[in-house]
Amino acid sequence: MTPKIRFFTALIVAQLASPALAAPGFMADWIAGKQVRWQISPMTYHYSEDPEHKRVVMLGLERENADRSLDGAAFFTNSFGQPTVYFYPWGRVYKAVAGIDHLSIKWTAGLLYGYRDPYENKVPLNFRGLSLALIPAVAYEFKPDWQAQVNILGTAGLMFSVSTRFN
User: Fold this and answer.
1) Between 116 and 34, where is the model more confident?
2) In the predicted model, is pLDDT for residue 18 greater than 80?
3) Rg of the chain in Å (alpha carbons)
4) Which region, left, alpha or beta, applies to residue 42 given φ > 0 means left and ψ of -120 to 50 means alpha?
5) Taking the mean position of all CA atoms in its chain, how far away is CA 88?
6) Is the confidence at residue 109, as pLDDT, over 70?
């Protein structure tokens, strides 16, 4: 898909989604009883050096339900500069790991889209840019409502991110 087609597709989707987002009470219902967090990742460390690797920048939104299940979406440029999205409807957080109040372990699972030709073999089970993903993470709340997190990206590397509560 060319950049222009992607851009116009995104505009159409945004236009179609905006009435739903603007509907009275939509956001209030979406976040009621849940903790919603903004995420940003300024840095990813790759286990192996590859001259084709580019800087990875991620922006995401994650929702923790009362039962500690997680869901969310992350938008980023992958290690090869391709725009990528990770949509995860499944996940869980385990808090106070090893008796440490602010330490937690998370996992998320969902669909990853964006690793396309010639990099489609860089993630497992990839079909035309779409693949399954399972991402474990370790998080630490370093001040109220602020977390630092390390996502373990399989055999590829580690993604370092910071998140804060969305009010």
Assistant:
1) 116
2) no
3) 17
4) alpha
5) 8
6) yes
DSSP secondary structure letters along 127-142:
BTTEEEEEEEEEEEEE
Structure token pair of residue 18 = 């905006």
Selected from 2.60.120.10, 3.20.70.20, 2.40.160.20, 1.10.3720.10, the CATH number assigned to the domain covering 33-165 reads 2.40.160.20
